[in-house]
Amino acid sequence: MRNKPEPKIEHPQDGIVRVTSAAICGSDLHLLHGLIPDTRIGFTFGHEFTGIVEEVGPGAVGVKKGDRVMLPFQIFCGGCYFCSRGLTSCCDSTNPATDAATGIYGFSHTMGGYDGGQAEYVRVPFIGVDAEKIPDDVEDLDALPITDAYTTGYQAAEMCDLRGGETVLVLGCGPVGLFAMWSAWAMGAGRVIAVDLEEYRLEFARNWLGVETLNFKELDLVTTVKGMTEGRGADATIDAVGCEAAGSPVHRALGVYAKLEAGSPQAINFAIHATRKGGVISLIGGYGPPFNGVDIGTYMNKAQTMRTGQASVKRYMPHLLEHVRAGRIKPSKVFTHRLPLEEAPSAYHTFARKKDGCIKVALFPNGTLH
């Protein structure tokens, strides 16, 4: 933790938000562990946060001081080719130095160099376009996952193109994987199978979402999934793990420790081999650029479809708020740990090392501990 100057309005469409809650995301660990390029000393992490609007620039329309808001993890302009088509995760205006992605709060200079929300105050570019007002009947911690984890899981399930009755395999029982499981059920899946190597996370998934579970430390995952699906494999598989996947000592050594790959590709390879021919792979886990040891030959020969992308959060926010307000889901259930911002360093270690039954951490600056 360190003190930094308070952010200022730098552009007419900027706003300043006083943070009331922030979360640690699994992809923050990729930064912490050096798997995302150009993460500089002194950079503020955090791309999931809610807060109160403190100030708006003269060009900001649609929000005002005192509004309670949540912010999508991407920063987007709302008017470019991609934003006008709902692909806010591909905005052309907020990270022009790279073709990789839009600007993202607290996610290295590769993603625009914008300071993040694990702080007391945040500069919010394009606040009138990006911010979503939180209804009075929705608590901060039920809104907070909509800024990323819930929405990412929802898009992951949507990308499976479910028609009803399919078997969906979800790799990873972290928050994104859990929300992907809920969303797969909501979209008509007939069977959801969750995979992890931590028994407490598998238990959480079973108890909350009623899924079948597999611990890949204890079995051959691909053989087991095929045995559960008449020899074919899952109809659709969601990779909710990303570049720190376990399961292959060689790939983990090359990608996570030696940095000779863009992280471990093991989750993608599990997905390719455990998904049936002609099936769908939904790749929502985070990977660093640019290269990876993916079994692309098997993928091609199995005639599979892979859909990818950062979630375009803004377009889903109203719909997911409806689910919350109707009582169909309580997203705050994923927050097993709630701590003041000052305890963020120890919270990162608890989360990264999967200690103390940690699923997800909420941080509270400004004395707002819930």
Describe the structure in your own words.
With 370 residues, the chain is α/β, with parallel strands linked by helices. Helix content is 28%, strand content 20%. The chain has two domains: 187 residues, Alpha-Beta Complex (Quinone Oxidoreductase, Chain A, domain 1); 160 residues, NAD(P)-binding Rossmann-like Domain (Rossmann fold). The strands form three sheets. Strands 1, 2, 3, 6, 7, 14 and 15 form a seven-stranded mixed β-sheet that branches. Helix 10 links the parallel strand 12 and strand 13. The longest helix has 13 residues. It is globular, with a radius of gyration of 20 Å.
Considering the chains and any ligands shown, give keywords for the structure:
370 residues, alpha/beta, Quinone Oxidoreductase, Chain A, domain 1, Rossmann fold, 2 domains, 7-stranded mixed sheet, 6-stranded parallel sheet, 12 helices, 15 strands, 20% strand
